[in-house]
From TrEMBL, chain A:
Protein name: Succinate dehydrogenase cytochrome b subunit
InterPro entries referenced in this protein's UniProt entry, alphabetically: Cytochrome_b-558, SQR/QFR_C/D
Keywords for the protein's UniProt record, in alphabetical order: Membrane, Transmembrane, Transmembrane helix
GO CC field: membrane
Keyword RNA-binding on entry: no
Chain segments annotated as transmembrane: 55-78, 106-126, 164-185, 205-223
Organism: Aestuariibaculum sediminum
Automatic annotation (TrEMBL), chain B:
NCBIfam families xrefs: dhsB, PRK07570.1
Cofactors named for this entry: [3Fe-4S] cluster; [2Fe-2S] cluster; [4Fe-4S] cluster
Keyword list, A-Z: 2Fe-2S, 4Fe-4S, Iron, Iron-sulfur, Metal-binding, Oxidoreductase
Family, per entry: Belongs to the succinate dehydrogenase/fumarate reductase iron-sulfur protein family.
InterPro entries registered for this protein in UniProt: 2Fe-2S_ferredoxin-like_sf, 2Fe2S_fd_BS, 4Fe4S_Fe-S-bd, Beta-grasp_dom_sf, Helical_ferredxn, SDH/FRD_Iron-Sulfur, Succ_DH/fum_Rdtase_Fe-S, Succ_DH/fum_Rdtase_N
Organism the protein comes from: Aestuariibaculum sediminum
Descriptive protein name: Succinate dehydrogenase/fumarate reductase iron-sulfur subunit
Biological processes annotated in GO: respiratory electron transport chain; tricarboxylic acid cycle
Pfam families: Fer2_3, Fer4_8
UniProt GO MF annotations: 2 iron, 2 sulfur cluster binding; 4 iron, 4 sulfur cluster binding; electron transfer activity; metal ion binding; oxidoreductase activity
Amino acid sequence: MSGFFKSSIGRKVAMALSAFFLMIFLLQHFAINLLSVFSGDLFNEVSHFMGTNWLIQFVMQPVLIFGVVFHFIMGFVLEIKNKNARGVAYAKNNGAANSSWVSRNMIWSGLVILAFIILHFIDFWFPEINTKYIQGDMSGLHEGIEGYRYFHELQEKFVNPARVAAYAVAFVFLAMHLLHGFTSAFQSMGATAGRKETLQNIGKAYAIIIPAGFIVIALYHHFNHIH
Amino acid sequence: MNLTLKIWRQKDSNAKGQMVDYKVTDISEHMSFLEMMDVLNEQLVNSGEEPVAFDHDCREGICGMCSMYINGEAHGPDRGVTTCQLHMRMFKDGDTITIEPFRAAAFPVIKDLVVDRTAFDRIQHAGGYISVNTSGNTQDANAIPISKHAADEAMDAATCIGCGACVATCKNSSAMLFVGAKVSQYALLPQGQVEAADRVRNMVAQMDLEGFGNCTNTGACEIECPKGISLENIARMNRELMKAQF
């Protein structure tokens, strides 16, 4: 089996498996963010649970970080290997004649997503880790805020229009990445037989609805909070 | 029609190549692309220059010999054809046409537009066959019932002529459409299923050894394939390799 993951197809399968995991995570993240539009209290409750549950914090979170890092490193490794497989570049190459821009530029959309994840870590993850595990405050409370602090922090983050704009741009690139990535992951797993069109349609819906939803949530908090 | 051709010239596999401009005049739109190349070569020979080396054989679109990356596409801008079936009516008078060899580290240039595609032969040798004991009591292949669907799919996969357009077109120079077709044509039939696991393992290992890139499912190979080999064959190869692990 170790030989399998060293083969070109094994590496594709590994990319697809990490992609499935990340796509499921994204769906869960979206569901929780969506709660913030309907009920700040509910968002607070779920955030506190996610932030203090040991299974999520010490099992799922490391697995997620491994999944993200693996997907990125493997993506870079494959990109370099694939560039080397060409040798001499074409003087004239009409890539648009036979494939979509998004499918040919996964590395670039991936790099924008990576930049966003770094920003996201600085914005949310590092302060959380600092509060909970360095300062040791697992209460989820903050002076001057009624109830848990998470909803208040979320609103504060989306006041700055530059952050909202960066957020929106990153999610447009995520949509592009998913427009190819969703169906591609199924194709890599060999699971497209007889249902390719259905998968392509589900992929399109997923790639547009989820990132657009994230943008709408950010805009909602931005405009709701400044008025 | 009168055309300007920008052609990759390379003396031999060790030489450094370059694009060279040529003019051809009075080209009929009914000519095939290779006939247009013949006109150019006649012109070059008559003026004492070295003719452009390019691969060709049957000129009927079935042998897979003719290659060429024409105006940024394998076998040129037409669909479902090899270069010998590409007609000059696809171009306009006054056009500049860029002609390059198929590019891949695994397909080194031998001379001008001729590339070494023996990597495909070595992949075939690694498992693209069935072992049949011909001692005299071999079962008649026609006596083995095969469903129409499987027979059709196997036949579709078997139409691959091994031209290498998939590799030339793929942004990663991946050979997975070719190998996928060869694996599929046997995997779909009972005669091929006996050695299915070893076949896919050995053929994929040889493909990786040759230095082809990794497929990223852009689908470009399927579009440019002169025989319309489906991407589904790659998915089947992936399944076959996963199955072969157990």
